[in-house]
Amino acid sequence: MKRDKIVAGNWKMNLGLDEGMELVEKLAKAYTHHEPRMVVIPPFLHALAVQNYLQSVHSPIEVGVQNCHQETKGAFTGEISASMIRSCRIPFVVLGHSERRQYFAETDALLAQKVKAALGQGLIPIYCVGEPLTVREGSGQNDFVAHQLEKGLFHLSPEQFKEVVIAYEPIWAIGTGVTASPEQAQDMHAFIRHRIAIHYSEAVAAATRILYGGSVKGSNARDLFVQPDVDGALVGGASLDADDFLRIASSI
Ligand code: 13P
Q1: Spatial distance between the Cα atoms of 210 and 179, rounded to a whole number of angstroms
Q2: Is residue 59 part of a domain?
Q3: Does the C-beta of 130 come closer than 6 Å to ligand 1?
């Protein structure tokens, strides 16, 4: 089963508009391939300018945002709905990032609603899972991630689930410079695929794209990407540097 390879850059709450545009201009000049799919994920405020620019230069680089609200519209000051994202022709939305779970108290139950809202608008959710250090130290990572999958995603029909991209981001590897070893990443990705096979089917599991995230850099990407169940990366810090992000993309 040939799966899409995806290299996505989550800018988080970084870069002013001019810096973000400069970064995306550099990427668009250098990156003209369709494989792997390259996705940039700026803050909401800048995402439409980035999307319009990339369309104007016919770039294959795609755009995502970092969150969405579970309701379609209404009195939710400060929030952005999946239908608004869709109306900007932005295809991807990150959901369940550990920073949203940790700092904004997003629960699996809330995320299950957000995923449904995103899919209902034809968006592609990049759904993040991953355990904290204490859980890894107690070897509880498989149970922890299995629970996140069950509560956040397994309410979806097989047809809906097939659209979802999963990102395994162990919290202890995010922004720390400590990447999961290629073996740790492969073991967890294979485990995730196994859980999907049990809940849905072997065919759905084989088609699911599973990205790794956590201190991915140009220097370590290749070792991760050669693992059979690693279909790409969700990159934080290194995606703010055009050269490093391009090097990651060329490592697949
Ligand atoms: P870093 O690549 O900076 O560790 O961040 C990973 C991440 O959280 C991407 O969503």
Answers
A1: 16
A2: yes
A3: no
- 128-144 pLDDT per residue, tens: 999 999 999 999 999 99
pLDDT in tens, 134-188: 999 999 999 999 999 999 999 999 999 999 999 999 999 999 999 999 999 999 9
Q: Whose CA is nearest to atom 9 of ligand 1?
A: 236
Q: How many domains does one find in the chain?
A: 1
**Domain that includes residue 88, residue range:** 6-250
Please give the model's pTM, rounded to 2 decimal places: 0.98
Residue 125, both tokens: 């959710």
Q: Which residue has the tokens 């492969």?
A: 186
Cis status of the peptide bond prior to 182, with omega within 30 of 0: no
Distance 127 CA to ligand 1 centre (A): 14
Q: Is the CB of 141 under 6 A from ligand 1?
A: no
CATH number of residue 185's parent domain: 3.20.20.70
With a 6 Å cutoff on the Cβ, whether 235 touches ligand 1 is yes
In a domain, 1, yes or no: no
